[in-house]
């Protein structure tokens, strides 16, 4: 047996308990439907005051990829952070993260990796979300991000020599994979990025690319994430160590912390680890040339 098979699929937002919600109120919120009702007491809303921000599309092979950006209104060229979504695709959470980044001097940009499979954020059943997300093969995902980087390179307010990438859950997995693919990324931050495969389309994992990283990646994981258990995280660390990346690509684990702990719109949110992780992320980008 492949020893990875002993671990649950960590792509999984479905590890969180199912919840009921008021469909009308949820639709109005702009967040992912299948993730459950918005935790209003913790959901962060960042104003676009002082920013240029809005929806757009980016031409990619075979279509136009829905995207969103935020950047300070003040003239200048700003370092870029690509924000890769969870399995739910592009919704308000990623847009707000872009605005948060813009507030501290970044050109924040996000995209919908799964647009060919429909708008996963508007699907109400987790099985439909996962079914759609798991149809995105890595070759397409990487090509789309290459197209996004090419788009960034043409933006007058983007400093394309200073591009970082971050993402949560499936997006966190993408961080590892894209840093191993592209030489145009200066640094990455993976929030609880999945470390196992989702056959039949997604067969490679971050464990397979620890020898190929082109830039330093900071991993932020939860010690109580049942989909990404500590033994699997330790295996990722061992892979990084084997190829000399253990120092430049460390993994920080928050004890007693579940999956999706940064998702402030969900019950899984943990304020302390989320805020500490955010500080670590900004410091990581700054210390690795994305500032």
Task: Produce the secondary structure layout.
Layout (H helix, E strand, L loop, with lengths): L22 H7 L21 E10 L2 E10 L5 E7 L7 H12 L3 E5 L14 H8 L4 H15 L5 E11 L1 H12 L5 E5 L25 E6 L7 H13 L8 E4 L16 H17 L4
Parallel strand pairs: 3-4, 3-5, 5-6, 6-7, 7-8
Antiparallel strand pairs: 1-2, 2-4
What do you see in this structure?
This protein has 291 residues and is of the alpha/beta class. It has one domain (3-287): Rossmann fold. Helix content is 29%, strand content 20%. The protein contains seven helices and eight strands. The chain has helices at 23-29, 92-103, 126-133, 138-152, 170-181, 230-242, 271-287, and strands spanning 51-60, 63-72, 78-84, 107-111, 158-168, 187-191, 217-222, 251-254. Strands 1-2-4-3-5-6-7-8 form an eight-stranded mixed beta sheet, sandwiched between helices. A hairpin with a 2-residue loop joins strand 1 and strand 2 (63-72). Helix 4 (138-152) packs across helix 5 (170-181). The longest helix has 17 residues, at 271-287. The protein is globular and about 45 Å long. The N and C termini lie far apart (45 Å). Residues 1-28 have low confidence and may be disordered.
């Amino acid at each position: 047996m492949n020893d990875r098979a002993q671990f649950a699929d960590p792509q999984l937002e479905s590890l969180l308990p199912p919840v009921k919600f008021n469909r009308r109120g949820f639709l109005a919120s702009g967040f992912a439907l299948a993730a459950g009702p918005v935790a209003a007491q913790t959901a962060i809303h960042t104003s676009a005051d002082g920013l240029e921000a809005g929806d757009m599309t980016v031409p990619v092979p075979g279509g136009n990829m829905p995207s969103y950006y935020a950047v300070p209104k003040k003239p200048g060229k700003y370092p870029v952070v690509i924000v890769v979504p969870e399995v739910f695709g592009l919704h308000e959470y990623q847009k707000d993260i872009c605005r948060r980044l813009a507030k501290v001097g970044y050109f924040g940009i996000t995209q919908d990796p799964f647009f060919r499979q429909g708008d996963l954020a508007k699907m109400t059943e987790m099985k439909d979300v996962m079914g759609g997300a798991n149809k995105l093969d890595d070759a397409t995902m990487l090509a789309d991000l290459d197209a996004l980087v090419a788009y960034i390179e043409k933006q007058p307010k983007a400093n394309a020599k200073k591009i970082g990438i971050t993402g949560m859950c499936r997006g966190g997995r993408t961080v590892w994979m894209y840093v191993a693919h592209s030489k145009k990324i200066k640094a990455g931050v993976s929030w609880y990025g999945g470390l196992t495969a989702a056959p039949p389309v997604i067969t490679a994992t971050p464990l397979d690319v620890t020898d190929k990283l082109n830039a330093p990646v900071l991993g932020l994981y939860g010690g109580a994430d049942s989909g990404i258990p500590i033994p699997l995280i330790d295996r990722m660390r061992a892979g990084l160590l084997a190829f000399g990346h253990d120092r430049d690509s460390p993994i920080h684990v928050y004890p007693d912390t579940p999956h999706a702990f940064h998702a402030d719109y969900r019950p899984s949110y943990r304020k302390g680890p989320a805020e500490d992780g955010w500080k670590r992320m900004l410091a990581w980008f700054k210390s690795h040339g994305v500032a």
